[in-house]
Amino acid sequence: xxxxxxxxxxxxxxxxxxxxxxxxxxxxxxxxISIEIDARDLPRKLLSATLRIPVASSTQxxxxxxxxxxxxxxxxxxxxxxxxxxxxxxxxLDGDVLNWTRTPGEVYRVELQVPPNTTEIEAQxxxxxxxxxxxxxxxxxxxxxxxxxxxxxxxxxCPEGQNPDESLIQTKLLLPKGWYAAAAMxxxxxxxxxxxxxxxxxxxxxxDSPIMCGRYxxxxxxxxxxxxxxxxxxxxxxxxxxxxxVDLDKSIVECLQRMVAQTAKLTGSQPFDHxxxxxxxxxxxxxxxxxxSRSTMNVLPPSSLRSxxxxxxxxxxxxxxxxxxxxxxxxxxPAGMVVNDxxxxxxxDLLWVYEGLTQYLGELVEARCGLMxxxxxxxxxxxxLRNAVHQQNRQWRPLVDTGAASHVLRDGSPAWxxxxxxxxxxxxxMLFWLEADAIIRTQTNGQRSLDDFCKAFFAxxxxxxxxxxxxxxxxxxxxxVETLNSIAxxxxxxxxxxxxxxTRESYDPKVAELLGYEFKASAQxxxxxxxxxxxxxxxxxxxTLGMMLSGDGSITDIRxxxxxxxxxxxxxxxxxxxxxxxxxxDVLDDAVQRSANSSxxxxxxxxxxxxxxxxxxxxxxxxxxxxxxxxxxxxxxEKILKRQ
Length: 644
Fold this sequence. Notes:
34 strands, 644 residues, 5-stranded mixed sheet, globular, Neutral Protease, domain 2
């Protein structure tokens, strides 16, 4: 074929049905980047993409730097899963292979050698699905035999200096035969079988719009007239490899409809013109979720969605939590997390708001829409108060630091977990906002609440903002203090300093008293459903001996300054016998029961190859820290949970 004709054909193909975004800052200008995503091999756990990237022509050879997404929104860290790239080649429009090298010390940046007079290059990317890292779980790509999840950032390269908020995109997606797809991006009407084309949007929204796809699909409208409040269009998209699973139980759909209505009443406005909740019901992908501006990604196993009664714990919380993030984290975002590319490090010290406030509001809406009862909410508060009391890394690390160090704390710590800490800004952040709600109600004699804070903080004057140009509204610590003070006068700066920004010896559960409850030790074990989210698993003797054990007697955690700590027990040791009896849970419980009227508890402990006697100096009998109602005070939780 004549080379000039070949160039013309390539140029023509590049303008039709592909993903486009300009390399200039003005909308509608020419020279777009284009990408075609090929998901036809997703059942084999492979995803491919072809990108056309324009470059500024030069009469000399030049180096063009390109970035693979590193700091993906929602990951709170440099978790772009670049290790799963399994093919990366570049060619000129003439078909010549172009050489590239990785920038020393920065694996996410590649430097492409471009010959003179080159105006466009083509990149081919192959990506291996189903291999997420701890930090990429929420924004990775997954594939199964009949269901899949595509995170567009996994097959994207961005020119250095490109502002993703000022770049136009249009997407073409190739699907396995008979599959459907859904995303926050709007699809075009001229789609053909097994292909989807999306209307133009920005590269920021492109990365922020996961694509869920699969063989079986059903859509449910969630913006019902019964909500009695103006709602943007909301659609729940359900995908599964099981045709019966997409026929979601009516009671679950009704709760999600109430979730949408209750959230609108809580926040007072909606920072989007439409919203798509993507839900994969599958056991071929890990349970998962991530927030987005106009959609949420949710993956749950079929067993958790067979009925409303089977929806428990984390599975029940997932959809409300990710939905509330559209206000807290996406629309209102910490100033340090508002950046103009996907490789500039983010400042994550305000995650106690981004995640902590979302955690509280998610569970609040979960209760108000009927997914969780008041008793279950009380159990959740009791569980988190107890977890906070036993948290020991606050003695050296303030809560704010767990946000600043978020991405290195996602992995759990097998040994001494409460001494190292984890992403504590979620749950201790939730307790902060619960306390703030109680303080506001107390200070204003019940006339105002955190609902009023939400209406002020999340106010959106243009909820139907242009899909291509809408940006997050940054906030600072100072704005949080000022907005809280506008609702109720209080020393909010001091509360944040004490709860979030200072080290402390132990957590003060004062919030229980504000709510009309008591948090104290009791000889009776509280009746909490084992399905309760974050209820410690294993054999729990934190409140007595100061340790947690597994069923075989292996010690999994120790509380400092407890009888177990003073006896020099540690994680990984194993109790073989108690007093004169072989180890069992019942034998240990019985020893604790008798401790108030007996001598010390004698153990035989296995430590590696050694067996050694250990004596526990404990004489107080059974006790369990738990939340109980104080009938002498009003029940503020009942008022907080009241449906609007």
